[in-house]
Amino acid sequence: MPTITPFIWFDDDLQEALDFYVGIFPNARILDEHRTENGELFYGTFTLAGQTFYGMNGGPGHPLTDAFSLFVMCDDQAEVDRYWDALTADGTPVACGWLTDKFGLSWQIVPRRLMELQADPDPARVKRTVDAMMTMVKLDVAALERAADG
Predict the structure, then answer these.
(1) What is the phi/psi pair of residue 97, to 5°?
(2) How far apart are CA 39 and CA 13, in angstroms?
(3) Is 46 found in the same domain as 103?
(4) Count of CB atoms situated within 10 Å of the CB of 140
(5) Are residues 80 and 129 in the same domain?
(6) Number of H helices and number of E strands within the chain?
(7) What is the DSSP letter of 42?
(8) pLDDT tens digits for 60-83?
(9) pLDDT at position 130, please?
(10) Own/partner pairs, 93-101, CB within 8 angstroms, 24+ separation
(11) Would you say 98 and 108 are in contact if contact means Cβ atoms under 8 Å apart?
């Protein structure tokens, strides 16, 4: 059975990215590193939250875009804050829980509670939740709940 693994092209900072990501996520690790004849890292395999990724130093010319992002489901506001703060270090907050890290990789840092509120059977609560989310940069669980409650 085939497996599907995200493959991320970096310009030349894969080692820094691997160290950065593995330092943020619990139980993350670098699985292997493949180097060129002169010892430079060419590609590597790593895991974050049980998901395997391949990364490659491919050089410039193929920049990352927000058309592809990694979605991090967080259990509570403290987890949202922790991942948000770590991934926006030298990165860029965007909107609605999205950010771009210092390597150009896009992330969505989303509290589980948002997904629950968006699945509410009351369309008015859902609309208020979504309207509130659309005004936020980093998602705020308490503010989303207040908005849903009207």
Answers:
(1) 90, 0
(2) 14
(3) no
(4) 20
(5) yes
(6) 5, 8
(7) E
(8) 989 999 999 999 999 999 999 999
(9) 98
(10) 93/137, 93/138, 94/66, 94/137, 95/134, 95/136, 95/137, 96/133, 96/134, 96/136, 96/137, 96/139, 97/133, 97/136, 97/138, 97/139, 98/66, 98/69, 100/66, 101/20
(11) yes
Contact 46, 53 (CB under 8 A): yes
Residues of the chain with pLDDT under 50: none
- Note whether 49 and 23 are same-domain residues: yes
As a whole-number percent, the residues of the chain with pLDDT over 90 amount to 97
Q: Which tens digit of pLDDT belongs to each residue from 90-107?
A: 999 999 999 999 999 999
Give the structural domain span for 133.
64-150
Which tokens go with 96?
A: 């609605």
Helix (H) or strand (E) holding 47: strand 41-48
CA–CA gap between residue 97 and residue 111 (Å, rounded): 9
> Any idea what the CATH number is for the domain that residue 121 is in?
3.10.180.10
C-alpha span between 4 and 129 (Å, rounded):
33
Helix (H) or strand (E) holding 51: strand 51-57
pLDDT of residue 1: 83
